[in-house]
Amino acid sequence: MIDKEKYSFKPYTEKYKYYFKQEKYNLERVLKINCPIEHIGSTAIPGLGGKGIVDVMLVAPKTKTGLLDTRLRKNKYDFREASGNSGRLFYQRDYKYKNGVRRVHLHLMDEENQNWRDNIAFRDYLRNNPEDSAEYGRIKREGAKLCAGDKGIYKQYKHAFIQKILKKINHEI
């Protein structure tokens, strides 16, 4: 899918922390279930920058994902069939904000899915390793320019760096 606006690079802002807290509150109210709600992606890493989309990960027991899916859809979270990752339900929600739109991506995974652990480990690693975070920011800026709005190209451009960091993390554990 080609979306040139979505794949533009935006500088980090402290407002992302506030947006996440607001979204977490909304989700707790809507879902009425106690499960981890994590801020992931570039907006969760101070100073990084990226597409400016607040990524939220919700981790639940497999037996609860159907119930959560129903509640999310009833509360205007748009389910996206082609989410790119197996074992993940993916939703998008847009909020009108000042003169534009603030977008939230919600990733619902069951607690047995290793992908949620990788997301948290990657986020925490970059938060604690500013040199690698800066390199990732450079890669994301270049990827946004080169991809011309193509999601596949953007993801592929970042893939080697992400795998390098995950391998580094797994060796450190």
Q: What report would you give on this structure?
A:
By secondary structure, the chain is α+β, with helices and mostly antiparallel strands. The chain has helices spanning about 15-30, 65-75, 115-130, 130-145, 150-170; strands at about 35-40, 55-60, 80, 90-95, 100-110. The protein has a 5-stranded mixed β-sheet, with helices on both faces. Helix 3 crosses helix 5 (about 150-170). The protein is globular, with a radius of gyration of 16 Å. The N and C termini lie far apart (about 35 Å).
Topology (SSEs and partners):
Elements: H1 15-31, E1 37-40, E2 54-60, H2 65-74, E3 78-80, E4 88-97, E5 100-110, H3 114-128, H4 130-147, H5 151-172
Parallel strand pairs: 2-5
Antiparallel strand pairs: 1-2, 3-4, 4-5
Which short descriptors sum up this protein?
173 residues; alpha+beta; Beta Polymerase, domain 2; 5 helices; 5 strands; 47% helix; globular
Proportion of residues in extended strands:
15-25%
The CATH homologous superfamily is named Beta Polymerase, domain 2
- Please identify the structural class as seen in this structure: alpha+beta
- Please mark out the parts with pLDDT under 50 across 5 or more consecutive residues, or reply none: none
Cα distance, first to last residue?
A: 37 Å
